[in-house]
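PROTEIN FOLDING TASK:
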Amino acid sequence: MPPINFIAGIFALITASGALPAPQPGEILTFKDWTVGCDNGGNCQAISLVPDDEGAGFDGWDGPVSIVRTAGSDDIFKIRVLFQTQDIDRYRMNIDGKLVDTGPIVQGDYPIEIVGKDAEKVAKAIIQGKHLVIEGPRGENITQISLAGSSAALRYMDEKQQRAGTATALVATGSRAFQPANIEIPTIIVDPWDTAKLAPETGDIVALVEESRCKDERYGLVEDQVFPLGKRGNRFRALVLISCGSGAYNFSSAPYIGEYVENERATSDWTFAPAKFDRQPSWGGEGSDPLLVNASWDEQDQTISSYGKGRGLGDCGSAENYIWDGDMFRMVDASAMPECRGAYEWITIWRAQYRKLEQAAAPAK
C-alpha cells in the first residue's frame, strides 16, 4: 500500500470508530410461556419459560429449551436443552405424547443439542404442539416445557430475519426466495496507551469517595478497586471502581477515570471524572452517572463487565461487556432476560467486534 494511502487508512479507521453511533440493543418480547429476542446482526433466540398459569411453578422443570438461528446465508439452526445431566445417557423428546427426537446426552454446557434439518423438524413440531416432555431411556423425567406462545415467538423470529413468506420460515412459510440481509457488525478501533503502573493512592481514593454519589451508600464491607490504564506522553490514567452499595447478590460500583499529568515544574494531583460509556450500563440507566453491578475487570484486554441479577436464582437480569478504547468504554456485547421464570440462559441483544489500532491499520501484504 502506498504511504499516503496507508496514512489515510489510519485516519479513516480512527474517524470511523469515533463516529460509531451509540449501540441500540434489540428488544426482547414475551409470548405466553416463551420469550424471544434478536441482536443487531439479526441473530435470534427463543427460550421457553416456566409456565405462568395459576402459579404452576417449577414442578417437573429442570431447564429451558432454547432455539437459536442466525440471520445470514450460513443459517446455523440449533435447539438446545439445559438441565442437570445426572446419570442419564440418552433422551427421548415427546410432544403431545408423540416421539419427535431421540439421541445421546453429552457432558458440557448443552447436554442436548439438535442441529440443522433435525432442529427444523423439531421446531415445526414445537410450533404445532402444546406440551413437550424430555425423558430418559427408562422414562426418567428430565424436563417438561409448555409450548404456549412458541408459535408466536418463532413467527417473530421469521419476521425479524426477513424469512416470512420464504421457504426458510418456520411459521410464516411461502415460496419467495430468501435473501439474507447484509448487516455489518460494528468494529471498535482500540487505541491502547503505553503500559504504566502509576495509579492513585489511598488518600486520593478517600477524597474521591467523599465527593462521589456513593458517599451515603457505603455500608458493611466495602472494597474500592484501582487499575492502571497506561500512559501517553506525560499523562497517566487509571480506572477506579468505587463501592456503591450492595444487596444479597448484587454489588454496585461507580466507575471513574483518574488522570495525572507529570510536570517537572509543578506538582499535579490526580483528577477524576465519571467514566464515559457509549451506552450506559443498564443498571444505572441513561441520564445519570454510570453504575456497574458485580463488575469484573480484565487487565490484559482492558475489558469490563457488568452483570446484574434480577433475583438470586440468576434466571433474569442484564449483562454488558465493554472495552476501553483509550478514551471511553464501548459496548462489545449485551444480553438480558426480563422474565424471572427459570431461563438461566439469557438472550444476546448486542454484539460488536474490536481490533487494536495497529492491527486494524496494518498494510495488506
Observations:
- Residues 191-334 form one domain.
- The first strand starts at residue 28 and ends at 31.
- The chain has two domains: 28-160, 191-334.
